[in-house]
């Protein structure tokens, strides 16, 4: 009897321990191992940082040549003081790992297509997508190229060693809390993971193309209608580098052999997910002639996905040869956007299309060979294994042609395949790795140019301002030299003439330095004026850049505060141009009294998308309803065919000057609508949708387009509550529900550098730290922090929180 | 006297074991050993000592860490557990620790009983 009792107790205990030690014991996702997680001696309670206490233990690090002092300022921004660059980067690796280790692990896994190893089946499809488009292959190619520059490779190794030194100090109880919830352990860092972080961010910005959609749309609409709806340049353009720059005349693009026309017809393929089209950025620099201080000012705000932990981390790195401040991407050595004692820089995305699709001409039904320049070439088959936690691995077969992998297969004609060529995953030059560190240490325009010539992807409009007075902007990156319209549509893959093999030389990239107008600016619009001799296509914004240029041209005596005001401006030219036309075409006689009241409200609006206003709500809904009623032909066909969508500016043009256009007709009705009828119908639909919300007390634009900043693993508990800032996708303050200004920076490059910045997040990646989300509210309010650019270790112009010393072993 | 020793051993050795050893369940074997070595005849009381010590060790530590953290993380974790508060998170930890301690102590007591063949069944 006693034996049975004991046996029962022991079994009960073991059973309970097993149950509480296992992830998802009942198959409930995401139920973490409860015993482990709730145990206060090793579980999540260990991640609850004591307020006002800081880990200043420091560390002895093999490989350091001298001591490194890390000083944290009152916002937990680390300021690294090292005796040389290698030591500084080792410390940088240590510091990013200390605060953002799980985020780095996630990014590397995400890029490699290895999320399912820890997340299970729910991420298997995502992993397959990441592997198909080749981020890992790209990172491998980068590493191969970087290895040819052993000096910079040694610096990357130092950074890697710094990350791993931190990881090796961790006991399981010290792991970031997400590791505990998802029940896995951090892996050592390695240079390829830096490559993966870089590829992941590249994919965010230069994975945009519409080749399949354009081919389908052309086949559907015919040549004339297609060309009229989708011209390559917008009606009102304000290119980054206008033709008025003299250098254009001296440029000569090489003449290319004629590119063969692509295959016509419809393609029924399951398109890969693409990044949000409204990702973008603003930057500008004004010369001292236009500022009240007489010193140039540089501003930058990249609009990227917003998350907790944030994409960015603020940091200063000081060595005897370099003193640089700005934001870094955890996993990449150096400072990505920022300033040093001599120059400041900021980037926006250049939306050039660097991804093309080729129809493969198979010679046999088994698809082992394809035709290329009249010869049969063998395709290579690679089988990729995706490991999945808690289930059998998934095998994915990839067939490679010399263009790249076969990604698409036509659903109706299995023989028709599309191979993908994406320049961003091809082998870069050896100088790519060193470019960022080169920029970080640049002292003038020439050094900046020299460093940035090594930059590859994603192409960026790099604005520049120097303390010596220079301002400049260069559209920087590797852009293929294309024939006219090459890569706008699907191309024929049986012919080497479709292949672009050269890139626009760095010296021929659109650029301007100290222009007469006294400022340079970019906001993802077209790179250069119509006379620029190289053909390029892609995805370019039309409204934000025009507004920045208007405001920068109209006055002088800019101050830092005027710049902040512009950067957070909620004004939209889209509303300014579209709304008067929409109101003009609105048939108010068909509206109810309440609707007429709303029209009056709209009539008084100043096109500012301020949080507290109501008219932007009405405009935005009306605009959406107009888009679906005017372009209903597109929305209808999209159920069966991937097609393009006319640009916003094209809608405005139709409103203004094209009353006879056939698209005004609403398909679902027997009669043929006039613009008045369609615009009025759209208004009534919008108001029908909006009425219940407009009746709520305090409903306004802020509530209507609330910004939701989620935790990177979508853990609701670690996500931010909704924020209600002003802004609009087509305003300079381009806030959107899940993306927006991810880092706002204003720097005056005077005798004393004055810099301000803010990002929506916090320096710590730990949800148990008060520094996890403390920048959110100031960011939402449009406030900035003065950045503490320390001149030396002794500098105490602002308060410091604590110091930590890394010493050589 | 053994009652006091079992109590103190569970509490002190339990604390030290959890502090230095990486296994979250280490309290169960410590409570087991304490109940085995310092055997008391009353099984129920032995179990309750394990329960009490376990609950105190888990809840107390959780409470201490969370208080210094102004309940920031415990509050967030509570949202992961269906929207409960930091206090309930602490109690949940205390409950788990209590169960671990109780089961360990019970098993320890039962094991000692196996070897005490001569001893009469305790008249509770």
Structure description:
The complex is a heterodimer of chains A (809) and B (124). With 809 residues, chain A is of the alpha+beta class. Chain A has a domain at 578-704: Aminohydrolase, alpha-helical knob region (Penicillin amidase (Acylase) alpha subunit, N-terminal domain, Orthogonal Bundle), CATH 1.10.1400.10. In chain A, a hairpin with a 2-residue loop joins strand 7 (313-319) and strand 8. In chain A, helix 6 packs across helix 9 and helix 11 runs antiparallel to helix 12. Chain B has 124 residues and is mainly α. Chain B has one domain (2-113). Chain B is 77% helix and 0% strand. Chain B has 5 helices and no strands. In chain B, helix 1 (2-20) runs antiparallel to helix 2 (27-37), helix 2 packs parallel to helix 5 and helix 3 runs antiparallel to helix 5. Chain B is elongated and about 50 Å long.
Number of strands of chain A: 28
Radius of gyration of chain B: 16 Å
Q: Count the beta strands of chain B.
A: 0
Query: What is the helix fraction of residues of chain B, given as a range?
Result: over 70%
Q: Count of helical segments of chain B?
A: 5
Distance, first to last CA of chain A: 62 Å
- CATH-defined superfamily of the domain at 578-704 in chain A: Aminohydrolase, alpha-helical knob region
Write down the secondary-structure element order of chain B: HHHHH
